[in-house]
């Protein structure tokens, strides 16, 4: 079996949100898809370990914010690689409450937002598929292209976090001499020459989560 | 609600297949996604009206062939807009039987193929989500890019068939003077000037399904 075939499936990049006691929660997912057009229903897949998973289970509502190609790596780092158990991910982010539900929705760095009420829940092991009836949908920015997982992977050199369904242990390429891994988010820096990583400036930070060089461990 | 927001979700284009009495069946879908990585599980969404839906329900196995950007419009027309009730869609197509199951898999015009055994079925109204355990996956063509729904829509000017979850009634753009619709597949030709459609050469055919001009009806 060649598991690289899984990487030929196409995905977007989304911030999945919900709310509890007026506190917003959210995480990045790559699986959101329309399943019926009338009535409009959308399904999302979320890892059970994500804090947002429990919040959606309790609230019965979720929001989807569709990220553009221009989404900042700090936004992706915060929502994709940190936990709402530890930090307020929405600090410094421009967001609002939905028109039809009280889910948080990103107003900047999103092309569009969709609000859903959960109508079915399917346990599929490590992940849960939430099927939602769409109660509102808005477009905020038609000038930007939506970020695909391919773009994130190829252009931004992003890697899937361990909770993602698409996560795989990385194999170094032939050209890689050293592999340095961010302890915080799992981002992998491939050095083509010895000492390339050490020679990065002291203020260099992880492009995904913003961790400094001391958070990296040499793996190869 | 702005339903155009649904078009900002990202999808690929796939041929979903199964088999009955040694006869291969298949249809085009845009929703296939990995839901867990260990064990590897993939879900697909299929309209209940598609003949392939019933075949998968009976056989308990399905195959996914991931289409490249270079996939021919005749392949898309055949698998996307015609029914296995009426024609043998696999005539003239290079395909094979899977290594682990007996599902048909496209060997040409596919980047990769994945074989699954159905482990869960979720009825979501007009569509069914089949969750499959992956039993084999192969890459055939690494040099090609996978076709996204955006590429199909923007570059090939393809439209979703009526059975697709992403189908919406089309609204003419401001520039459109006449709208001609293919009775067979629903493809919409937008004329920017009066008589533009009539002036197309007699041997012009629908770019999606190959129907000739006489199959088009003027809608605007």
What is the β-strand count of chain A? 12
Helix vs. strand class of chain A: mainly beta
H/I helix tally of chain A: 3
If classified by CATH, what would the architecture of the largest domain in chain A be? Answer: Roll
CATH superfamily of the largest domain in chain A: Electron Transport, Fmn-binding Protein, Chain A
> Could you tell me the radius of gyration of chain A in angstroms?
18 Å
From the N-terminal CA to the C-terminal CA of chain A, the straight-line distance is 26 Å
Helix fraction of chain A by DSSP (H/I, runs of at least 4): 10-25%
CATH structural fold name of the largest domain in chain A = Pnp Oxidase, Chain A
What does it look like?
The structure is a homodimer of 220-residue chains. Chain A is built from 3 helices and 12 strands; from the N terminus they run ββββαβαββββαβββ. Chain A is mainly β and 220 residues long. Chain A has 2 domains: 10-154, Roll (Pnp Oxidase, Chain A); 178-218, Rubrerythrin, domain 2 (Single Sheet). In chain A, a hairpin with a 5-residue loop joins strand 10 and strand 11. The model of chain A has no long low-confidence stretch (mean pLDDT 87). The interface between A and B is large, with 53 and 53 residues.
